[in-house]
Amino acid sequence: MTKKPVDTAKPAPLNAAADITKKRSKLKLALFALVPLLLAGGGYAGWTMFTAPAGGGTAEASAAADGGREGEGGRAVAVPPEIAAETSYTHAFALSVLIAPRCGVARVPALAQATEAEAHDSGMLVNLSWLAAARRVAATTEKSCDFLRAEVIDAERLAMKMADSAGKTAAVH
């Protein structure tokens, strides 16, 4: 019985094959991740180049379509109707009406008059304001009653100031 010496100098061929497949799988993963991103970017670039509106969707184009209301610095300002609805007198009045059963009745005659004026100007604004107020009231808790009442009172004060200043300017002219 003779013993053969163990040959440790030769590397195992299976380990080399496993390393190559690991490198390939990382490469495939990178390609599978980057190709859709590149295609999406190309699609967006093509859309903006060929099918986007001719005005380019700039603030000036939207302000011109909005009637050219002027804001700070003499530049035209276009406010989306959703934002205008949540910052209107009608929104505060709707909050006061909708929170009355849970938080108590608030006396807001100036808000009622301002709401009437907004209703004559834009019925869509009034509708969006009531919808936004209903969404906010749906999540009302006992803690949030104080915050909503404070918001309604602040809006009432602002409406009173605006009514007073409008009365003074009407008396001057």
Describe it:
This protein is mainly alpha-helical. Helix content is 72%, strand content 0%.
Compact description:
This protein is mostly helical. The chain is built from eight helices and no strands.
CA-atom Rg in angstroms: 33 Å
The total count of helices amounts to 8
> Main sheet?
none
Helix content: over 70%
* Unreliable sequence segments: 57-70
How many runs of DSSP E, i.e. beta strands? 0
Strand content: under 5%
Label the overall shape: elongated
Keywords summarizing the entry:
single chain, 173 residues, mainly alpha, 8 helices
Question: What's the structural blueprint in terms of helices and strands?
Answer:
Layout: H1 13-50, H2 59-65, H3 81-86, H4 89-98, H5 100-103, H6 109-121, H7 123-138, H8 142-172
Helix pairs in contact: 4-6, 4-7, 4-8, 6-7, 6-8
